[in-house]
Amino acid sequence: MSKNGENVAKSVESLKKWSKEKTGVTVSGQVCDISSPASIEGSVKSIDRSLGAIEVLVNAAAINSDKLLFNSSEDMIKDTIETNLMGTIFMCKTVLKHMIRHKKGSIVNIGSVVGLKGNTGQTIYSASKAGLIGFTKSLAKEVAPIGITVNLIAPGFVRTDMTSNIIKPKPEELIPLQRIGSPEEVAEAVHFLANASYITGEVLLCDGGLHLVL
């Protein structure tokens, strides 16, 4: 995260401005290296002091570098797994300490349709997202007796900074709903699962029907 700290800070400032203008809600941010348990612990403690106990955790951090497996460097493989899978595991482990204490909470992990279907050139990314599915379902079983829900959203093509260079020129030829999804539509799915107190261990596809044709 140190290499991308400036980008993260800019994202936080943009979110603060947008939230204040659109909703009137105050937003605060933390720069955190999710591959580091110590960094996560520090951020969670800071949030707990300033905002109170975390009731909803959304794990959305991810990186992707489209390459065939034999062209993938060891560093790229490690970075992808550490960010997409291990980061979520470490984050859940830390935040759950607080949720268990209060006997309530909701965790929503952001996976991908390729974690279910696979995709050429995305072997490592697909592996990291498939791992999230198994992790989500297992963790849901562990914490259900405490009243904590754990679910996963599997988006398809969504227009973000990460996907801007890899989305196909004419997605309508591939996606049944004939358009790329928006971050707002994924956010609506997150909001639904975060408040769905009787749903846990679920994988919710939010892909415009892309899984039907892959």
Automatic annotation (TrEMBL):
Family (UniProt): Belongs to the short-chain dehydrogenases/reductases (SDR) family.
InterPro entries listed in its UniProt record: NAD(P)-bd_dom_sf, Sc_DH/Rdtase_CS, SDR_fam
A biological process from GO: fatty acid biosynthetic process
Pathway involvement of the protein, from the record: Lipid metabolism; fatty acid biosynthesis
GO molecular function, one term: quinone binding
Alphabetized UniProt keyword annotations: Oxidoreductase
Keyword rRNA processing carried by entry: no
Name of the protein: 3-ketoacyl-[acyl-carrier-protein] reductase beta subunit
